């Protein structure tokens, strides 16, 4: 048998049909659904008089539009948001889907809920009408976003038409230095490869520094594979994965667990597998980083300065000039001198319990800078409950943070949590495009520990100074 990558193995196990030109029909194990990209897909089904093929593999949860303050059952003010959430409610009921409505403690960001409930398992194909579906690749699943017409196709058939991507290996060798986290890894990879570096590839992240990460950290790394242009990112499952999955509500049990483990243990890239592209980064070389511009690739170590646009080649020089202007910065300015107005801790990149622990560890016994707006938005109701039980919520509140309900919140401006014009935010989310967190808002992407450090000083801060 010819050697295979992990991606090859999962792909081969799911091909239901292959056409002569290599286009395949892939079986889909899990279809995650949120309110933004699904209404038209369900409308399409209704119009064609179709049902959902596998409602027991279709998991729906509202997340993007839900307000994160006050009463969960209150009517959503914004009409468009309200219509989308109400449509999901109705569709979940009409089509008999698995559903976590807004007042269910298990509700949260779809990419946090799937793994938490044991819906996401190694070796699966997982899709969602959402680009950050890549998160689920942390389990050794082939997981990626799809468009709304594909959502309809998967709802109707539980299959997806796909062409195979190329194989890319991103190896992070050795150990990380203190203060360096999964977020710094994933941003540094994008810094090295650019936002188009992964185009046409599925990335497998490997190496000692990846192995050493918890499942939460691995999800953070895979979450941003899409920001690096890749179709998906994945990590081979190991004991860390199996320990995380075991006992979750929808994980296999008993004899089914044993059978699953037999398959899961075969899920790794063979030694002599062929890679179309390989990137290697030394774990020791990664620093705590921040973004200075309006693309995730605009990233530098916190002890660097805002770059001069002339130092970039070709079209990138103009992009950098524009980004620096939009961000209201000056070339040569120290990144650690940039003052911020807001801190946002949350999102499917960094809204899990370990992220909250990392931020709380920095904040314990401290206060946020006077006049700063800071909020923690747990990724799910269960993360929130656990953080309360562990005393983290108290630490955040005592420091001056708002303690919110679960949702996408300020990761994107689709709900009341937004930046105002010119407002500058240290954010644990994954996108820093113009207007991403609100019209003319300015976003600096950071890890949870770095966000906490920035909240204390009121400027972008090297977390290592606080450790
Ligand atoms: C709204 C949704 C389609 C979008 C995505 O696909 O990523 C959102 O989750 C985002 O992060 O920008
Ligand atoms: S938290 Fe942000 S990145 Fe994740 S699904 Fe929601 S909007 Fe998209």
From TrEMBL:
**Which Gene Ontology terms cover its molecular function?**
3-isopropylmalate dehydratase activity; 4 iron, 4 sulfur cluster binding; metal ion binding
Q: List each copy of the Aconitase/3-isopropylmalate dehydratase large subunit alpha/beta/alpha domain by range.
A: 8-458
User: Record-annotated residues binding [4Fe-4S] cluster?
Assistant: 348, 408, 411
EC annotation from Swiss-Prot or TrEMBL: 4.2.1.33
Instruction: Note how many cofactor molecules are bound and how.
Output: Binds 1 [4Fe-4S] cluster per subunit.
Q: Which GO terms describe its biological process?
A: L-leucine biosynthetic process
Tell whether Cell cycle is among the UniProt keywords: no
Q: Pathway involvement?
A: Amino-acid biosynthesis; L-leucine biosynthesis; L-leucine from 3-methyl-2-oxobutanoate: step 2/4
Keywords assigned by UniProt, alphabetized: 4Fe-4S, Amino-acid biosynthesis, Branched-chain amino acid biosynthesis, Iron, Iron-sulfur, Leucine biosynthesis, Lyase, Metal-binding
Q: Which reaction does it catalyse?
A: (2R,3S)-3-isopropylmalate = (2S)-2-isopropylmalate
Top enzyme category: lyase
Q: Which cofactor does it need?
A: [4Fe-4S] cluster
InterPro entries, sorted: 3-IsopropMal_deHydase_lsu, Acnase/IPM_dHydase_lsu_aba_1/3, Acoase/IPM_deHydtase_lsu_aba, Aconitase_4Fe-4S_BS, Aconitase_4Fe-4S_dom, IPM_dehydratase_rel_enz, IPMI_cat
Q: Respond yes or no to whether keyword 4Fe-4S is given for this record.
A: yes
Q: To which protein family does this belong?
A: Belongs to the aconitase/IPM isomerase family. LeuC type 1 subfamily.
Subunit note: Heterodimer of LeuC and LeuD.
Function, please? Catalyzes the isomerization between 2-isopropylmalate and 3-isopropylmalate, via the formation of 2-isopropylmaleate.
Q: What is this protein called?
A: 3-isopropylmalate dehydratase large subunit
Name of the gene this protein is made from: leuC
């Amino acid at each position: 048998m010819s050697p295979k990558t992990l991606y090859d193995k999962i792909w081969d196990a799911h091909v239901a049909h292959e056409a002569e030109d290599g286009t395949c029909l892939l079986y889909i194990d899990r279809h995650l659904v949120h309110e933004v990209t699904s209404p038209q897909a369900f409308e399409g089904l209704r119009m064609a008089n179709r049902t959902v093929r596998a409602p027991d593999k279709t998991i729906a949860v509202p997340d993007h539009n839900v307000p994160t303050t006050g009463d969960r059952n209150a009517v959503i003010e914004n009409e468009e948001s309200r219509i989308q959430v109400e449509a999901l409610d109705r569709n979940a009921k009409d089509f008999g889907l698995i559903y976590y409505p807004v007042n269910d403690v298990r509700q949260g960001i779809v990419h946090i809920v799937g793994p938490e409930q044991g819906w996401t398992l190694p070796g699966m194909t997982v899709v969602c009408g959402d680009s950050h579906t890549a998160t689920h690749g942390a389990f050794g699943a082939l997981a990626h976003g799809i468009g709304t017409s594909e959502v309809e196709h998967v709802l109707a058939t539980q299959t997806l038409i796909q062409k195979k991507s190329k194989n890319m290996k991103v190896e992070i060798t050795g150990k990380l230095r203190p203060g360096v986290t999964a977020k710094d890894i994933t941003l540094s990879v994008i810094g090295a490869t650019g936002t188009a570096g992964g185009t046409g590839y599925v990335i497998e992240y490997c190496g000692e520094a990846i192995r050493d990460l918890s499942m939460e950290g691995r999800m953070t790394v895979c979450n941003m594979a899409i920001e690096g242009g890749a179709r998906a990112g994945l990590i081979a499952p190991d004991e860390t994965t199996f320990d995380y999955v075991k006992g979750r509500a929808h994980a296999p049990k008993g004899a089914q667990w044993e059978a699953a483990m037999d398959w899961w243990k075969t899920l790794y890239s063979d030694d002599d597998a062929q890679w179309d592209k390989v990137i290697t980064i030394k774990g020791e070389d990664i620093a705590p980083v921040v973004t200075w511009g309006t693309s995730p690739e605009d990233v530098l170590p916190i002890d660097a300065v805002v770059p001069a646009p002339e130092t970039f080649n070709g079209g990138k020089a103009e992009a950098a000039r524009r980004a620096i202007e939009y961000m209201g910065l000056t070339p040569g300015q120290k990144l650690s001198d940039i003052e911020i107005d807001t801190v946002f801790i949350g999102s499917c990149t960094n809204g899990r319990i370990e992220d909250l622990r990392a931020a709380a560890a920095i904040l314990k016994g401290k206060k946020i800078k006077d006049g700063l707006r800071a909020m923690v938005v747990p990724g799910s109701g269960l993360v929130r409950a656990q953080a309360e039980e562990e005393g983290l919520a108290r630490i955040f509140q005592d420091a001056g943070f708002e303690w919110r309900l679960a949702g996408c919140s300020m990761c994107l401006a689709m709900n009341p949590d937004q930046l105002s014009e010119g407002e500058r935010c240290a954010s644990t989310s994954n996108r820093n495009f113009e207007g991403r967190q609100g019209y003319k808002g300015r976003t600096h992407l950071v890890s949870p520990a770095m966000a906490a450090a920035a909240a204390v000083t009121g400027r972008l801060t090297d977390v290592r100074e606080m450790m």
